UniProtKB/TrEMBL annotation:
Cellular compartment(s): Secreted
Keywords: Repeat, Secreted, Signal
Native species: Aromia moschata
Domain VWFC: 10-59
GO CC, one annotated term: extracellular region
The keyword Repeat is annotated on this UniProt entry: yes
Recorded superkingdom: Eukaryota
Domain VWFD, residue spans: 63-235
Record's protein name: BMP-binding endothelial regulator protein
């Protein structure tokens, strides 16, 4: 309704033209004002738009931890590192109230290590996420979608499995070796494990269980401290895996990692530096048992970009990481890679990174 017509109704009457603009009548004349919004938030919070609200509001940031590839970890506070421990490890847990825990089982194939199973405990609930999307609830096989009212729900998200607990904790599992854990802000400074303590301080994320803060050169000590079971067994297995070093014959395989420097990923360049993910990808492809290990680093990078508001439609298909491509023999994937993308891939990557040789020893990526 036109503002001048509204003012004919009664002096002093107020109304909204939209969510950000309001008007009132003053002596028969319309007087309108636009709401000014705060565009800054305190550390640990971010702006979120709500439907029907003019201004975004500052809300506490959820914590996100990722485990992917051979295995690489990104903690709740953003530290990225590689730790190739074989065995069972505590990824994260509520170390204040013992309300939940997430443990992973890592296994090696040739010189490559990856997460094979995930064990989630939530009170009397036990959920196991296994290879190829298999799920067990308290020892019994179940299929998504599945839920227990007031406790949890399990959903299928494309070819992935997502578990949401009543306490707000979420697990995203791709059925291979990519795991993402999201925790609400209420768990700040209450967590412990390979994913860190979620206190917005990246410098203390490598806290050895029950002790001091490890340095980047002490990742082996840090990782084995979170071994579930006999710590000596984990350390013994790690030493045998870490003997392998990337040789020059594997260099062509690492070129697959350059997908993240091309479309559609380049839309995220201004929001997130892909170099850490690229380095992680090179390590994975150097000793990849199936030719598709680069897809996990791309997934980690893509999900981080999407959390920052960058939409990456069809990134899986563009990089041959979609379900149909993953079922192809390696030779078909290589031919597609070479014929469709090879020239573009070499156009964007810094020259000094092309010459980098990666080791499979524990390395800091930050």
């Amino acid at each position: 309704m036109n503002a001048s017509i509204m003012c004919q109704l009664s002096d002093g009457q107020q109304w909204k033209l939209d969510s950000c603009k309001s008007c009132k009548c003053h002596r028969g004349m319309p007087s309108c004002a636009i709401t000014r919004c705060n565009t800054t938030c305190a550390e640990g919070t971010r702006l979120v738009n709500f439907t029907g609200e003019c201004c975004p509001k500052c809300v506490e940031v959820e914590g996100v931890c990722m485990a992917f590839g051979d295995p690489h970890y990104k903690t709740f506070d953003g530290k990225m590192f590689s730790f190739k421990g074989v065995g069972k490890y505590q990824l994260t847990a509520d170390c204040e109230n013992n309300s939940f825990s997430v443990k992973v089982a890592n296994a090696n194939k040739l010189s490559s290590t990856s997460t094979k199973r995930v064990a989630l405990r939530y009170g009397d609930v036990r959920i196991n996420l296994q290879q190829k999307g298999r799920i067990k609830y308290n020892g019994q096989r179940v299929k998504a979608p599945y839920k227990v009212e007031g406790r949890f729900r399990i959903e299928k998200v494309k070819d992935n499995v997502e578990v949401t607990l009543q306490n707000g904790v979420k697990l995203f599992w791709n059925g291979k070796s990519f795991l993402e854990i999201t925790v609400p802000a209420s768990y700040k400074n209450k967590l412990c494990g390979l994913c860190g303590n979620f206190n917005a301080k990246v410098q203390d994320d490598l806290k050895i269980k029950g002790g001091r803060i490890a340095t980047d050169k002490e990742l082996l000590s840090f990782g084995t401290s979170w071994c579930v079971g006999k710590r000596s067994d984990c350390a013994k297995k790690i030493r045998s895996v870490n003997k392998a070093v990337c040789s020059s014959k594997h260099r062509p395989e690492t070129s697959y990692c350059k997908y993240m420097s091309t479309e559609p990923f380049s839309a995220c360049d201004s929001k997130l530096d892909y170099i850490k993910y690229y380095k992680a990808c090179k390590v994975d492809m150097c000793h990849c048992p199936n030719g598709k290990c680069y897809c996990e680093s791309l997934m980690a990078y893509a999900r981080e970009c999407e959390r920052l508001g960058v939409k990456l439609p069809n990134w899986q298909k563009a990089s041959y990481c979609d379900a149909s491509s993953l079922r192809r023999p390696n030779l078909s994937a290589r031919k597609a890679h070479k014929s469709h993308r090879h020239n573009a891939l070499y156009r964007y990557i810094p020259k000094n990174l092309n010459k980098t040789r990666s080791s499979v020893n524990p390395i800091p990526l930050q």
